[in-house]
Fold:
Amino acid sequence: MMANPISRLIMTLGLVLGVMLAAPAAQAQVNPTQQSVNEGALLEALGSGGNVAGRITIPDESAGYLIKPDNKLWAALQGDTLHQISIWAVIGMVALLTLFYVLRGKIRVDGGLSGRKILRFNTIERFAHWTLASTFIILALSGLNLIIGKTVILPLLGEAAFGTLSAWGKIAHNYLAWPFMVALVMVLLLWVVHNIPNRLDLEWLKQGGGLVKKGVHPPAKKFNAGQKIIFWAVIAGGAALSYTGVMLLFPAEAGTPADWQFFQTIHALTAAVLSAIIIAHIYIGSVGMEGAFDAMGTGEVDENWAKEHHSLWVEEVKGSKASKGRTQPAE
Amino acid sequence: MARMKFLCDADRCIECNACVTACKNEHEVPWGINRRRVVTINDGLPGERSVSMACMHCTDAPCAAVCPVSCFYTTDDGVVLHNKDTCIGCGYCAYACPFGAPQYPQTANFGTRGKMDKCTYCSGGPEPDMSQAEYVKYGSNRLAEGKLPLCAEMCSTKSLLAGDGDIIAEIYRERVITRGYGSGAWGWRTAYGETVTV
Structure:
């Protein structure tokens, strides 16, 4: 009976002693406060494009990304490289066309105007073309403003007016993108059958499309190889612009900042290239060639123009008209 | 002139989110926008740390470099501010920011982004200091009143420091030397290209 309290006391003492001895030893091994994540180590461990991220208590999950160091890399590309490319694409093409105009002049109809007209593009085709064209021009100008506006227009207008202009430009860009996409699909459906590349195109390209030399007119159907190049550039470029543009309109659905930067870069590069191509297209469809504008203006072209630039197409049209009009001879 | 910076001593942050709440209240920040937030790294693991983060007011700020309408400007105190009258809400600054600072209220139809909103270091915008117009767009201008940002001023553990970069770096350095450890000046390397070495 006596041994019990004594043994209990010894046990308690031993336990206290044990804890006292063990505590410093455990502390020497691990200091829970000292052991912590370290910013420097986390940053060094990051691969390219990596983020320092953690848990967040607000609903916006993207706020959990604490530091995204590589986000800064895009600044130089966007603020400088794309700026340069866009300017040189536009200025370069304008310079090239000016040079071409000086050397070659306006391409005339060699045989002179006949006065007889052939329907080249019907109302639906012209509607699709001009919807695409007018929205593209506003989209291109409002987009170009975002790239070069701050160096070109801002000094002219001042910050307040430039801000208002750019805000309207952004609204136009956001909303006109939709009719642009509708017209792009229309143009694709209307003209894709006429734009399948074939052997005639090689010959057309070999002869430089008759652009360089006077009096040279390689045969072509409804669309020649040059127009096919424009067509596919517009379809491919327009599709790329549409896809990246929609992603930029709805960034929450598009992904992370790295994705947004990628889409913006593709969007800007495609826009620069396509703008240059379209400037050339506008040139040849207006001041560059006599009789060309009528095709999209009234829809009816001069017969001599058509014979020179789309000889096989004229034969097709005349042939079908003739066969329709022909009556079966009596037996 | 001072070069204003934030420094979050994560070894002191207890993730109380008072800085977040104080900021929202002081500036009457719109719904859905957090100019400041607290992120917990390695949550639930030994050595987890919480970091309070807002706009770091970078040197050579990438948001300013990508802004298509040049609406950003840096004050004499090194604070990066923006003009909401010029801002078109394109979102580029949010693409470029390493800290997720720029945010956009949903103001128009189809979820169109409104004018960007971010931490102003409690120093308003381009309007006259402490004017009503400035308050409506950017919140209060404590710097003009001779005060530091509220988030740091009311931090109960003095984890979040605001003030001249050299001074707060020195305070942090002393703390690290005294207690023998520190998880680093979060974001400094990315924002200023330098960190606080002890």
Summary: The mean pLDDT of chain A is 86. The beta strands of chain A are 52-53, 55-56, 65-67, 117-119, 300-302. Chain A touches chain B through 57 residues (CB under 8 Å). Residues 159-191 of chain A form the longest helix (33 residues).
